[in-house]
Structures are given as C-alpha cells and as structure tokens.
Specification:
With 274 residues, the chain is α+β, with helices and mostly antiparallel strands. It has 5 helices and 11 strands; from the N terminus they run ββααβββααβββαβββ.
Length: 274
C-alpha cells in the first residue's frame, strides 16, 4: 500500500531534509501541517533556521546529512493529501456572519495572511449564486466555493484575486489549499462517456452533478461536500493538471459526485445553513 493510499490511522513516516539535515515527520506528530500549508499558501518562505521552529513542525532530527543544499520547500517536504487539523476546523460556513447587501457589512481589511484564518473572523461570508462578478463585494468579505469558482474563471490576474479576496486566494492566485470549503458548491453536469481529468470514463448510471476541480487540483465542494467528509488538504507540491475547471469521478476512495443532486442555488437544496 502506498503512503497516499494508507488509512489515516496508520503510522506513516516522511523522510525529508531542512537546511542540510535529514528529518522524519510522522503522522503522529504532524499537527502543525495545516499551519505549514497556510504559510506556503500565503506565498511565504518556510525554511526553518532554528531548532525551535523545526520542533514546531513535529519533526525529529535524523542521523545523516542531506546531500547538497535545498533550494525550495518542495525539495524537502511534499505530503500526501491530509485531513485538516483542529486549528483549521473552526473556519467553516457557520463561523461567519452572512453578508447582507442592505447592511453592507464589510469588515476593515485584515492584515497580511500569516498562516491562520483567524485574522478574517470579522469578515462576513458572501453566499449568493445569483451575484454577477461585478457585484461581488471586496475586500473585507469571504466568498463561498461557488463564487470563488466564478472568480477564478473570470479574473485572470492573480494580483487582483489576492488583493480583493486574500482569504480565498494566495499571491499566485490559486485557491488556498488549507481553506475549508464554504457555502454553495461549484458543480458541473456530467454524462456517460465523459472523461475526467484522471482519464476515467463516466459509465451509464454515473451521470449527474459533480464537483468542479480548479486546474484538476482543488475541489470546490462547498459546505455539502465538507459536511460529508470529502475534504482533503491537497499536496501543495502538485503541478497544474489542466487549465480552468474539470471534474473527477472519485478522489481518495470517495465519489466526487455531488451529495446534493441539484444545480447550485436550487431553492430545494436541503443543505443546512444555506
């Protein structure tokens, strides 16, 4: 069984190197992984230079030096998909006040993202699939998965995405890996014979609404997918698999067929909190 296929309760060790020294990171001591992901999402360099910062990652020093200097984080640590740790779990749909255009409840712009979504606690959450791109407020708000998807396919500038909606998008314009799915999901209709990004063919009986995957890397499953336990933090070292939106039939052993087989924004959507 590969590391990627291993069950969550199985002990896994990852051998890596930081500053010329080998280290081992185990699942038992990887609680800081979400913080690492957040910092890398923010476009911040993360090359620990002290014993204390290395210890904060939950790594233990190895016995042999690495061969040659490491020039980037991806050279020493590229984890498999992981479930979010407890530091990320509070920042779900119910954590935020809903944005009300009548109140125009936009918070003052928070400071620079440095690894925790708590700096956006005062932000309201925009959940409205009828909004046009030009009417999505910014900054000072969070946007749900559906609107995040609309922004990604409509705005090519990474700088604009990051400046206007820094809680959702990193400096490279990519949706943040450690961002908990919010609000409405982004979905696409899939029919028999369609081929997903992994080369799998949709068979008769598998047709329906599927969650959209931005560049084949990030699933915009919204609250319904998150509530169903489908969310994984993607490996930050993965390269883009395509441009734009695509779909997957399954991921990490679970179907990517939408939990709610209705178009986004359908008034009959039973998802609580929407």
């Amino acid at each position: 069984m590969s590391e990627r296929e291993a069950p969550l309760n199985q002990h896994i060790s990852h051998e890596s190197s930081i500053h010329g020294v080998n280290y081992t990171l185990s699942d038992d001591s990887a609680a800081a992984h979400g913080d690492l992901m957040c910092q890398l999402d923010a476009g911040l360099p993360f090359l620990p230079s002290t014993e204390q910062s290395i210890s904060a990652l939950g790594v233990s020093e190895g016995s042999s030096p690495a061969q040659g200097p490491q020039t980037s984080p991806s050279a020493w640590y590229n984890p498999p998909p992981r479930k979010p740790n407890k530091k990320l779990l509070p920042f779900t749909t119910s954590h935020y006040t809903r944005y009300d255009p009548a109140l125009h409840n936009i918070a003052p712009t928070a400071g620079t993202f440095k690894g925790s979504f708590s700096i956006y606690d005062a932000y309201s959450l925009v959940i409205n699939p009828t909004l046009s791109i030009d009417n999505i407020p910014s900054p000072g708000v969070r946007v749900d998965d559906y609107l995040a998807g609309e922004l990604l396919v409509s705005i090519e500038s990474a700088e604009i995405l990051h400046q206007k909606w820094p809680a959702e998008f990193g400096q490279n314009g990519m949706i943040r890996a450690a961002r908990i799915p919010l609000g409405h999901a982004a979905k696409m209709w899939v029919k028999p014979g369609d081929i997903d990004i992994d080369g799998n063919v949709v068979c008769p009986g598998q047709e329906g609404w599927y969650y959209k995957w931005w560049r084949g890397l990030h699933c915009l499953m919204g609250k319904e997918g998150y509530d169903a336990g489908l969310y994984w933090i993607r490996p930050w070292g993965e390269g883009f698999k395509c441009e734009g939106m695509t779909f997957k039939i399954s991921y990490q052993g679970a179907s990517c067929r939408a939990v709610v087989q209705l178009a986004t924004g359908d008034p009959d959507d039973p998802t609580p909190g929407l």
